[in-house]
Amino acid sequence: MDCDGCVKAVTRAATGAGTAPLSVDLKSGEMRLPAGADVAAITKAVERAGFGIAAS
């Protein structure tokens, strides 16, 4: 992610998949999700928005 627009796009994608992220950090590229979040659905939504996912 390179800018605040990217953060907003990833947040919008995750929220559209049913879970609002707790935080999206531009510098590290990390998104924190609440317990019980549907990671598979969020992964698909974020990838459809044009961003990659790396599991940690």
Description:
This protein is of the alpha+beta class. The protein has one domain. 41% of the residues lie in helices and 11% in strands. It has 2 helices and 2 strands; from the N terminus they run H-E-E-H. It has a two-stranded antiparallel sheet with strand order 1-2. A hairpin with a 4-residue loop joins strand 1 and strand 2. It is globular and about 25 Å long. It starts with a helix and ends in an 8-residue tail after the last helix.
Strand content: 5-15%
Number of helices: 2
Record field, number of beta strands = 2
What structural class do helix, strand and pairing data support?
A: alpha+beta
Can you list the strand order of the major beta sheet? 1-2
Largest sheet: 2 strands, antiparallel
**Rounded Rg:** 10 Å
Q: How far apart are the termini?
A: 17 Å
What is the mean predicted local confidence, pLDDT? 87
What is the general shape?
Answer: globular
For the record, the count of structural domains works out to: 1
What string gives the helices and strands in order?
Answer: HEEH
- Which parts are unreliable, with pLDDT below 50 for 5 consecutive residues or more? none
Q: What percentage of residues falls in helices of 4 or more residues? A: 40-55%
